[in-house]
Amino acid sequence: MTTVLITGCSSGYGLETARHFHARGWSVIATMRGPRNDLLPVSDRIRILPLDVTRADSIAEAIAAAGPIDVLVNNAGIGVVGAFEATPMAHVRKVFETNTFGVMAMTQAVIPQMRARRSGVIVNVTSSVTLAPMPLAAAYTASKQAIEGFTGSLAHELGAFGLRARLVEPGYAPTTRFAENTDIPVMELVPEAYADFAGSIFAGYANPTLTTRESDVAEAVWLAANDPSDRLRYPAGADAVALASVG
After folding, report:
1. Catalytic residue check, 140
2. What's this model's pTM, rounded to 2 decimal places?
3. Do strands 120-125 and 71-74 pair parallel, antiparallel, or not at all (unpaired)?
4. Which of 13, 140, 172, 234 is catalytic?
5. CA separation (Å) from 149 to 140, 142, 157, 196, 233?
6. Residue 205 has pLDDT above 90, yes or no
7. How many other CB atoms are found less than 10 A from the CB of residue 202?
8. pLDDT of 179
9. Is pLDDT of 106 > 90?
10. ∠ CA 197-201-203 to the nearest 5 degrees?
11. Contact between residue 11 and residue 36 where contact means Cβ atoms under 8 Å apart
12. CA spacing 20 to 30 A to 19: which of 2, 30, 125, 163?
């Protein structure tokens, strides 16, 4: 049976992706920092493991407990919205620890077993902020752009062993907890000097023309995991697809 390990499954894209793969007959290892057994169906094809992608010991324990992994989905991430000028560098580093270094560490942890089998797929979930410049998201964009470059390069070196590396680029999903999944409330990162500018941006977020559903991302991850081609990028959601077509 094919096994997928997904990070960041306590809500949003990760949770929906875990449900999506389970519904299609896969064995799912759903990981989260604080495991909850009430989020997913009770099934012998679902295991819930604790995992903090910023801690090497936590990664090692999760990989050891998981056993053979056919597909790794690096979905765990934290957000930061606000003026870069007002964003503490300590928080910028925290964003990179999860969104960038956490992805790299998880990837490095599974490559040896995949390379030994000459089979496996690594799917890294980034964001539509990598498709077009977006205001009040400079630090977050940088953390995700790093993974875009990382994955593109990785795809070449892993291809020599029959492995694939993919990018899923979700658009804006108002139903996710992106803005909440941060230690600093958004408005604390909007100084008075930025108030007028930020107000118009937030108004646009409140009434988007196109958005992304969690199911759009789950389906894009499914496609990325199963596509036998050499395709690298999979925009997810109507807004992301529109941005990708312009770029």
Report:
1. yes
2. 0.94
3. parallel
4. 140
5. 15, 11, 13, 34, 12
6. no
7. 15
8. 52
9. yes
10. 115
11. no
12. 163
Question: Is there a contact between 132 and 246 (Cβ–Cβ < 8 Å)?
Answer: yes
Residue 187 tokens, joined: 């408005």
Contact present, 38 and 14 (Cβ < 8 Å): no
Q: pLDDT digit string (tens) for 134-175?
A: 999 999 999 999 999 999 999 999 999 999 999 999 998 875
Question: CATH classification of 3-246, choosing from 3.30.428.10, 3.40.50.10330, 3.40.50.720, 3.40.50.2000?
Answer: 3.40.50.720
Dist. CA 17–CA 14, nearest whole Å: 5
Question: So what's the pLDDT on residue 247?
Answer: 62
CA dist., res. 199 & res. 80, Å (int): 17
Tell me the pLDDT tens digit for each residue of 57-91: 999 999 999 999 999 999 999 999 999 999 999 99
DSSP string computed for 9-56? -SSHHHHHHHHHHHHTT-EEEEEESS--SSSS---TTEEEEE--TT-H
Query: What pLDDT was estimated at residue 233?
Result: 98
Amino acid type, 190 = V
Reported in sequence order, the residue ranges of the chain that DSSP labels E, i.e. its strands, are 3-6, 27-32, 46-50, 71-74, 120-125, 163-170, 233-236
- Is the model's pLDDT at 211 over the cut of 80? yes
- Integer Cα distance of 193 and 229 in angstroms: 49
Task: Identify the weakest region by mean pLDDT among 44-53, 112-121, 128-137.
Answer: 128-137
Q: How far apart are the first and last CA of the chain?
A: 38
Name the residue type at position 95: V
